[in-house]
Amino acid sequence: MRVKQFVLGSVAGLAAANDDLSSYALTDSQRLISDVMQTGSINGGNTFPGVARPLGMVKLGPDLYTGSDSYSGYQPTGNFTGFTMLHESGTGGAPKYGVVSQMPVVGAIENPLSDKMNDTRASADKTEVGYYKASLGSGTVLEMSASKKAGIYKYTFPENKEHYNVLVDVSHVLSSYRGQGLEQHFLGGNISVHLEEESDKHYYTGFGTYDNGWNRAGPWTVYFCGYFDTESRYKTFLGKDFKTANLEEFSEKSSHESKTARLGAVFSFNQTSVVSRVGVSFISTSQACSNVNSEIPDGTSIETVRDGTRKAWNSEVFSKVTTSETNVTKLNQLYTALYFMHLLPTNKTGENPLWESSEPYYDDIFTFWDIYRSLTPLLHILQPVYYEEFLRSMIDIWRHQGWVSDARSSFHNGAVQGGTNGDNVFADAFLKGVRGKVNWHDALSAMVKNAEEVPVNNNDPRDPTGATQEGRSALPDWHEHGFITPRFGRSVSRAVEYSVNDFSLAAVALGLDDTEKYKKYFNRSLNWRNHWNPDLSALGFSGFLGPRDVEGFISQNPISCGGCYWGDYYYQGLPWEYSFNAHHDLGTIIDYCDGEQKFTERLEMTFTPGVFSGNGAFGNTLFNPGNEPSFVTPYLYSYVNRQDLNVKRSRFIAKSYYKPTPAGLPGNSDAGAMESWLLWSMIGLFPMTGQPVFFIGSPWFSDLTIDLGGGKSLKITSEGGSEEKFYVQSLKVNGKQWNKSWLSWYDIFAKGGTLDFKLGDAPSNWTTGPTPPTPASLGVDEAAILISEWADAGDE
């Protein structure tokens, strides 16, 4: 194992006492590390193991090279190539950032561009909330911590050696080796070395400009400002070009600028202990210096920064969810999941170089396709202030750049995998009463543009059939036919998403009293039905979503999606999975499945082992816990009042595929989406995004309190539960007996509330009340009554 966690503090009562809850967040527990030396990591979780503040801009950690993509910079094997200030967490596609690098080097440096400017691991990395430690083969030990916009390095070089150096490489980036043309490039920059007037210590400033990454971004620039706490000598260097290690100049020249060639500086020290403070900014070098000097002033110890970061996580995140539970495994899972779902998106307010605005700015959205089902609804509950800022940022981006994209990073849109799922986030927030400073009329205008304007094709080789940077590129078919033909990639899965997006738009329009738009987009939200092919059959069931063109349906195996990628009919999900995913119209899906009994049997087949052995199979089931199209499926039993099966399936998934261990995720974290799914399971609820509806599961804790802000809380208790006894026998909501398999936002979250469960070892038929609403199945007029009730409740 390459990374070891620290678990600090006493166990009993810590979570209830609101003490140092960061002790339970194992920042490497989702690291998916192999115990044997191999390239890559187990399960590809790609989470970031370094140090960061909640939603913080700086994510300081190691970059390793093995010849394969290092998405968060980290790899369990390979050589350290640098320790950089900016990373992302749990992303796929291609690496992003890995910039503003320092690298310790022991020995004389003749060529700072040499392939020898890397180092091995001497022992396992160590990490905890607010702290990262790497022991290098050279004998150097490097410790790190971070604030929001700055970081601190503490170098302890080996005794009795010569030439202690820190290499600053402006041209360092995380690259991609997948051959998709998404690799990042250094496009030029500057480095200048200065001497502090009051001392003989050097500091450096400059900038680098880069492009690409998973969102295929255009050029963006980051500025930096780095200080050392001791005297140094220095040389700056400039390469002949970016691709080779050939030097143009390596001298004591105080400044170098590059348009294409590699660029940096080497600082050399006479002592074994060196501390460096580095700030970053997307505005200017002076702002980078201001950031580091305000957040980590001269003389600040790494212990002080670490303690400040731990306090930030405790006060801003971990204290929002408390329990008297003493089971360390459960506490580790709870607080580790909370940690990883709070790394993205990035709060870059005050650091937007593109336009001046008094509005907040959030970046690094990977992607709404990944996070809208479970992460954004939980962020709303746990971080209502950040969440409102996030919505305002989305709208402000539309004001200045014309689109609310499904994905964004480094101030550029990109990587639209399906529909415009920011629309679903807007609808979810609106129908749950988020008002504040959000301009909902502007939000509606942004949603209408997504629904009506075809974006310009950005010629992404992953999908040459249309734009991937923003919008819905298959709108020509959607407008003309009411379905999507294979001339557009991901035609069937996008048809499902476009339908849900249109329903979200209709709901917000009605809430803002625009009945004309409501009717138009409500009717368009039913277009997914045009892809339902009753003649498709598999495993004894008939009727599935299938591809079609203007001449009719195209043959398709319901349990195969080919490559399940950009150019296929379905994206990261089987036809079987997507056939459950028109979540606004579940009543129609149940009818198409020949009624409640067959619908239940079809759901059960989804979780039956041994029926599927295709790509991405988990336990040979059709259900895939590692991809988002399956996220809601275990809770769809609510629509047939089989809450016991909600519990049976969701509990099995959570216990089978999630663990507080190096192999603790079922796949890519997807910027915290996986962790948020687990958190909902532990809480005992699950959201239906775009409606103020929550399905009832089964809580893992005898007590759990969620701080909702504003003096409100949700208190959850359970009696009689254990690892074997988890079926709900009865439930009281706000002290009153409950008989429904679902709850509304306005039952327990709007003003706070209580949930009191009684659990047992066998299913109990207690959900005899009405099933969850399926608004699109009601028809345009009856649905308007329901949606208006939701919107009016949000206005109160």
Mean pLDDT: 93
The CATH architecture of the largest domain is: 2-Layer Sandwich
What strand order characterises the main sheet? 1-6-7-8-9-18-13-12-11-16
CATH class of the largest domain: Alpha Beta
Sheet having the most strands? 10 strands, mixed
In brief:
By secondary structure, the protein is α+β, with helices and mostly antiparallel strands.
Molecular structure report:
Residues 454-473 are annotated as: Disordered. It is a single chain. This protein has 796 residues and is α+β, with helices and mostly antiparallel strands. It folds into 2 domains: 3-316, Beta-galactosidase, Chain A, domain 5, CATH 2.70.98.10; 365-468 and 481-795, GH92 mannosidase fold (2-Layer Sandwich). The chain has a 10-stranded mixed beta sheet with strand order 1-6-7-8-9-18-13-12-11-16. An 8-stranded antiparallel beta sheet has the order 2-3-4-5-10-17-14-15, with no helix packed on it. Strands 19-30-31-35-32-33 form a 6-stranded mixed beta sheet. α4 packs across α17 and α11 (491-511) runs antiparallel to α12 (515-524). The model is unreliable at 1-18 and 29-42 (pLDDT under 50).
